[in-house]
Amino acid sequence: MNTGFIGIGSMGGMLVRGLLRCGALKPANAYVANRSPQKLASLIAEFPGLHVGGARELTAHCDLIFLCVKSGDVPSVLAQIETELYPGQLLVTTASVISLKALEDRVPCRVAKLIPSITQDISAGVALLMYGSRITQEDRTLLEELLGQISHPVVIAESQARPAVSLTSGAPALIAYFLQSMAEEAVRNNPSISPEMAREMIQETAISTLRLMQEKQMSAEGLIRRVAVPGGMTALSIEILQRHLPQAWQAIFRETTEREAKDREVLTL
C-alpha cells in the first residue's frame, strides 16, 4: 500500500521517520509533501528512495494519506487535493480541532483522526485514534497494526478527545513542566543546589519512579502509601499539593475544552 504524508513538521516528520525506521513502511511505498524544501531534503538523505512531490501528486498515488498539518491549514490543503480524492482512499488527519463529521462532509473517502505523541519518537506512548462513520474493519486493523509498531494505539470516541489529548499528546510537556518547576523552586529555596544538580536529580527520580511502577506493577496510590509516611515531610507535601493542585488541573481541562470549542466554531472546511 502506498502511504503518503502531507506535512512533515514536528508530528508528521516524527510519524514518517518512526514508521520507516521500524520497517513498517518502505521508502519505495512512502510519499511525502511539505512546504519546506529543507525538511524534504533532510528526509530524502535519511531515507533514499522516498517519493517527494506536491500534495496533489501524492494524493493521486496513495491509498492511505496522513494529513499532518495545523488545523488552520487543513481547508487550504483540502482545496488542493480534493479533486484527486476518491472513495477507496483512507484519509487520516492529525488536526484535533477538525471534526470527523465536517471532514466526511467535505471529502468522498473514508476518514479517521490520529493524535500522536512526541513519545512516538522512541516508539513508545499512546497514539489516539478516532474513526469516521465510513471506516471499515479492514481500515481499523490496518491503522492499529501500522501504528502499533511505534506506539500503543488507543481507540476513543471523538467526545472523549479533549481530556484524552491532554493525558497523552499534551502530557509529556505538562509532566516536563511540573518536574522543571519543582527543580527550579528547590534551587530558589536553597541556592547551594545548582540548577544542573536539581534537574539531574528530579529527572533521574522521575524515570526510575515510572520504571518502578511498571516493573513492580505498583499503582500511584500504592507508591504514595509506601513513600508518604504519616507525619513525615512527604506526607505534608502531599497534603499541600492536595490543597492546590486539583484547582490547576480543573482550570487546565476546563479552559482547553472552552478554547477548542471556540477554535472549532471559527474553522470551516
Give the amount of beta strand, in percent.
Answer: 5-15%
Q: Which second-level CATH architecture of the largest domain applies?
A: 3-Layer(aba) Sandwich
Structural class of the secondary elements? alpha/beta
Distance between the termini: 28 Å
Radius of gyration: 22 Å
Q: Can you walk me through this structure?
A:
The protein has 269 residues and is an alpha/beta fold. It has two domains: 3-161, NAD(P)-binding Rossmann-like Domain (Rossmann fold, 3-Layer(aba) Sandwich); 171-266, ProC C-terminal domain-like fold, CATH 1.10.3730. The protein has eleven helices and eight strands. It has helices at 10-21, 37-46, 55-61, 74-81, 100-106, 137-147, 161-167, 171-189, 195-215, 220-227, 233-266, and strands spanning 3-6, 30-33, 51-52, 64-67, 90-93, 110-115, 126-131, 152-155. It has an eight-stranded mixed β-sheet with strand order 3-2-1-4-5-6-7-8, with helices on both faces. Helix 8 (171-189) packs across helix 9. The protein is elongated and about 70 Å long. The mean pLDDT is 96.
Which key features would you list for this structure?
269 residues; eight-stranded mixed beta sheet; alpha/beta; ProC C-terminal domain-like fold
In short:
The chain has 269 residues and is an alpha/beta fold. It has helices at 10-21, 37-46, 55-61, 74-81, 100-106, 137-147, 161-167, 171-189, 195-215, 220-227, 233-266; strands at residues 3-6, 30-33, 51-52, 64-67, 90-93, 110-115, 126-131, 152-155.
